[in-house]
Automatic annotation (TrEMBL):
<dbReference type="InterPro" id="IPR028923">
    <property type="entry name" value="SAICAR_synt/ADE2_N"/>
</dbReference>
<comment type="pathway">
    <text>Purine metabolism; IMP biosynthesis via de novo pathway; 5-amino-1-(5-phospho-D-ribosyl)imidazole-4-carboxamide from 5-amino-1-(5-phospho-D-ribosyl)imidazole-4-carboxylate: step 1/2.</text>
</comment>
<keyword id="KW-0067">ATP-binding</keyword>
<dbReference type="GO" id="GO:0046084">
    <property type="term" value="P:adenine biosynthetic process"/>
</dbReference>
<dbReference type="InterPro" id="IPR001636">
    <property type="entry name" value="SAICAR_synth"/>
</dbReference>
<protein>
    <recommendedName>
        <fullName>Phosphoribosylaminoimidazole-succinocarboxamide synthase</fullName>
        <ecNumber>6.3.2.6</ecNumber>
    </recommendedName>
</protein>
<dbReference type="GO" id="GO:0005737">
    <property type="term" value="C:cytoplasm"/>
</dbReference>
<dbReference type="Pfam" id="PF01259">
    <property type="entry name" value="SAICAR_synt"/>
</dbReference>
<dbReference type="InterPro" id="IPR018236">
    <property type="entry name" value="SAICAR_synthetase_CS"/>
</dbReference>
<dbReference type="GO" id="GO:0006189">
    <property type="term" value="P:'de novo' IMP biosynthetic process"/>
</dbReference>
<dbReference type="GO" id="GO:0004639">
    <property type="term" value="F:phosphoribosylaminoimidazolesuccinocarboxamide synthase activity"/>
</dbReference>
<keyword id="KW-0658">Purine biosynthesis</keyword>
<keyword id="KW-0436">Ligase</keyword>
<feature type="domain" description="SAICAR synthetase/ADE2 N-terminal">
    <location>
        <begin position="17"/>
        <end position="275"/>
    </location>
</feature>
<comment type="similarity">
    <text>Belongs to the SAICAR synthetase family.</text>
</comment>
<dbReference type="GO" id="GO:0005524">
    <property type="term" value="F:ATP binding"/>
</dbReference>
<keyword id="KW-0547">Nucleotide-binding</keyword>
Amino acid sequence: MSIPVVTTIELQSLPKLTSGKVRDLYEIDDKTLLFVTTDRISAYDVIMANGVPQKGAILTQLTAHWFKVLGERIPGLKTHFISLTPPPSVSDEDKSLIRGRSMQVRKLKVFPIEAIVRGYITGSAWNEYQKTGTVHGIPQPAGLQQCSPFPKPLYTPSTKAELGDHDENISPEKAAEIVGDKYAARIEELALKVYSTAAEYAREHGIIIADTKFEFGLDEETDDIVLIDEVLTPDSSRFWPASEYEVGRDQDSFDKQFLRNWLTKEGLKAKDGVEMPQELAEATSARYKEAFKLLTGKTLEEALGEL
């Protein structure tokens, strides 16, 4: 039996605040949101016409796992996560729509930057380095090979674009202009700490995190910087199988690089209304699930059975 692909969800028991590329946000009360993750998938900042089976559940359950792991390994880390259980105000009918793909989170002021951390040189960073010897305009040592590790992880922020627009790579100095020096320094420090901690954990479980992006919010009551949104998923990161890693070439991946490669090959990069072949959607789901099992030690079905 085929698994339904959920690209649109309309809850009746909570007011919807906004829809993003993948997530819909609903208001529980003035301090709490319900994040609902659909099976939509985007590449090159464009949403595909069809989705990836069970993607929303994979991202939600993996993010919750990472919040637990990071909270144990980084003393004092604050996250917006509250619970995987929907609030009582959600009707039984709505609960059936969002089973496994929703989480309650704290409502916070969101910083308008993406905190990207790169541990390995690949993708656009590799392309820039070959031309100029820099990454995000930051000079790098000579002699780096494709997919080799940086001497130390690199913080390369970008703007956080509105839906339909494109993120813009910016310097750490520009990020400081946007969010203020005090918060920019703390965001950079936290992003690097979370990445290095997660990379160590992932390597222990057979995965290399080549790069990833984080988002942070501000708890205005305590002035704390808080890790928010999805974290360290195949949607927000490049995951490589550690057993197959080899410097000097493109790597196999557990992320949506399959989709990016197909779009580029077919001349469909950044075009609206593109529908993936069914086999590509199913292959992407299978790879996401494989990464999920390596990182959590359980299948998605086992994780959902615990809810």
